[in-house]
Design a protein that fits this description.
Helices cover 35% and strands 24% of the residues. It contains eleven helices and 13 strands. The chain has an eight-stranded mixed beta sheet with strand order 3-2-1-6-11-8-12-7, sandwiched between helices. The chain has a three-stranded antiparallel beta sheet with strand order 10-9-13. It has a two-stranded antiparallel ribbon with strand order 4-5.
């Protein structure tokens, strides 16, 4: 008997984020996805028990690509974000690929809404390469939004891609970017080849955001280098330094009646987790939010 053909592949990368990873996986499983799908996790060589947990999950395809430390007396080669995500993208059997982070939660029915939007537009003979889900960085932000990148072109931070489009544009650039801007670059390559990226009202994601991340990014040589690479790559195509900057957020009014973030990331569950225990500002804010529930 032939296996049921996969329509959707969910791909996410992870490293030493077991608490968040488990929550992300549960949000996928609980999303009532109505098409055959697979889950692919690329782990960077976690040492916090993530790998042991993953290999016990019989509905997850686990790819381990060590990205830290030494082996046989030699330093392990550090790989880019694009390299890791491409391992999952190229392994995916689904027509559509859902990309989320390991510290994300899918709100109820997000995936079905995204797929319906994708398929409806395809039936209208629109050449769709990506469908962006609305997200917010929790607990810092209240509003959900998608983002326009260079040239005012919409990009996918979290959401769906057409696998065929990814393949046609040569996947994510693995060499030019270390960690940042590769997602925007990917979407611009699709725009350049005639694929649209559209938003999907009804598809929402909560993303846990370390309040100190913004501070680190302002003093981050990798971020600066990746940003300059990005601007140089698209200058004269979608980026013109002497013209108005068309980048920005497209916000939508939505209140999560399920309180997804507060229910899944209650402060008492992870206040002592090494990922967040030293982050006094976000912890204080989560405590205030939790006290209101």
């Amino acid at each position: 008997m032939n296996a049921e053909k996969r329509i959707l592949s969910v791909v996410l990368g992870s490293y030493n984020r077991k608490f968040f990873l488990q929550k992300a996986i549960h949000s996928i499983r609980d999303n009532a996805i109505q098409v055959p799908y697979e889950i692919i996790v690329i782990d960077g060589g976690s040492t916090d028990g993530s790998i042991a947990w993953l290999v016990k999950q019989k509905d997850i395809i686990t790819i381990v690509q060590h990205n830290r430390g030494e082996f046989n007396g030699k330093a392990i080669e550090r790989r880019s974000w694009g390299y890791f995500m491409n391992l999952g993208f190229k392994s995916a059997q689904g027509k559509y690929i859902l990309m989320i982070s390991d510290d994300c939660l899918l709100l109820p029915d997000a995936v079905n809404c995204g797929l319906d939007r994708f398929i409806d537009l395809e039936k209208q003979n629109r050449r769709i390469g990506g469908v962006a889900f609305y997200f917010r960085n929790w607990p810092q932000e209240k509003e959900y939004y998608v983002q326009n990148t260079l040239g005012g072109k919409m990009m996918v931070n979290h959401g769906l891609f057409l696998r065929q489009a990814l393949e046609e544009v040569g996947w994510i650039d693995e060499e030019a970017y270390t960690f940042y801007k590769a997602d925007g670059d990917l979407c611009l390559k699709m725009w350049q080849m005639g694929y649209e990226t559209v938003d999907c009202p009804g598809a929402y994601v909560d993303h846990f955001y370390d309040a100190n991340e913004a501070v680190r990014q302002t003093n981050n040589a990798v971020m600066d280098r990746d940003r300059q690479t990005y601007l140089k790559r698209w200058q004269g195509i979608y980026y013109y330094p002497d013209q108005p900057d068309l980048r920005g957020k497209v916000k939508i009014a939505y209140k999560d009646s399920y309180n997804t973030a507060a229910r899944n990331w209650p402060i008492q569950s992870f206040v002592n987790h090494p990922v967040v225990k030293k982050l006094s500002k976000p912890i204080a804010k989560i405590k205030r939010l939790a006290s209101k529930k």
